[in-house]
């Protein structure tokens, strides 16, 4: 690096802000000053915010499954492509943990660069995947799921995944419906704190009409998870105050 002309720090930062994460990871090994700049928490937050509002940096995450009739399972593949029609739209296959590739059901959510996956076949095994660096992390079962006595009296949990820009934290939402008590248990997992906790907030509707009948797909926008029930009511979970609204 000694033979290269010196660039002011603000110019280097402005260049780094325009680069994708993959390039930044490579440049971290060039020199100590670049490593310090790219690894700085304020830079990471600013880069994430810029990426979240710039359509040219957004990507679609698509899930493809093939039913294997003989084995009674599905072969899953997850691909990523550019969201902007003006960008290079080549499809990139993402490496997923092997234990997720050959099961019948798989739920996939993506937000701000991370992917959350869970499968009913694996007892609601939950995994966070960083596709850029190819690393993944298992998430421990929620407190409610660990209680086998109450778990037998609940329906299949409803999951959600989003980024809380205020707390600067990725959060996983898991909602259980107790059949015998007509009651909801809602838990939140903090990726930053690596722990589950229950919140005292039930759905703002009667349990018979909504809570058991939510579509599996979610829409996450500005720290709010939106889901639609079968009778077309929209239920929203706000990450900042951790409350549910209709």
UniProtKB/TrEMBL annotation:
Transmembrane segments: none annotated. Gene3D superfamilies: 1.20.1280.50. InterPro entries: F-box-assoc_dom_typ3, F-box-assoc_interact_dom, F-box-like_dom_sf, F-box_dom, SCF_F-box_component. Residues 1-47 form the F-box domain. PANTHER family: BNACNNG10540D PROTEIN, F-BOX PROTEIN CPR30-LIKE. NCBIfam families: F_box_assoc_1. This is Class S F-box protein. It comes from Solanum tuberosum (Potato). The lineage of its organism: Eukaryota, Viridiplantae, Streptophyta, Embryophyta, Tracheophyta.
């Amino acid at each position: 690096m000694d033979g290269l002309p010196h660039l002011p720090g603000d110019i280097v930062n402005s260049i780094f802000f325009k680069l994708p994460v993959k390039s930044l990871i490579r440049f971290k090994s060039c020199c100590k000053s670049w490593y310090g700049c790219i690894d700085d928490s304020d830079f990471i937050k600013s880069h994430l915010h810029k990426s979240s509002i710039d359509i040219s940096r957004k990507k679609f995450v698509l899930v493809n499954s093939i039913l294997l009739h003989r084995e009674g399972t599905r072969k899953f593949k997850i691909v990523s492509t550019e969201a902007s029609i003006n960008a290079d739209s080549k499809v990139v296959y993402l490496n997923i943990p092997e234990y997720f590739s050959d099961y019948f059901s798989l739920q996939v959510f993506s937000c701000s660069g991370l992917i959350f996956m869970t499968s009913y076949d694996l007892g609601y095994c939950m995994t966070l995947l960083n596709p850029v660096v190819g690393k993944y992390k298992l998430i421990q079962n929620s407190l409610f799921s660990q209680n086998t006595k109450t778990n037998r009296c609940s329906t299949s949990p409803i999951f959600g995944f989003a980024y809380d820009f205020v707390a600067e934290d990725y959060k996983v939402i898991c909602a259980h419906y107790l059949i015998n008590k007509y009651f909801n248990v809602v838990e939140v997992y903090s990726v930053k704190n690596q722990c589950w906790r229950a919140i005292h907030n039930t759905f703002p509707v009667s349990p018979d009409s909504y809570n058991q009948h939510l579509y599996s797909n979610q829409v996450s926008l500005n720290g709010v998870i939106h889901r639609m029930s079968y009778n077309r009511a929209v239920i929203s979970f706000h990450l900042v105050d951790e409350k549910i609204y209709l």
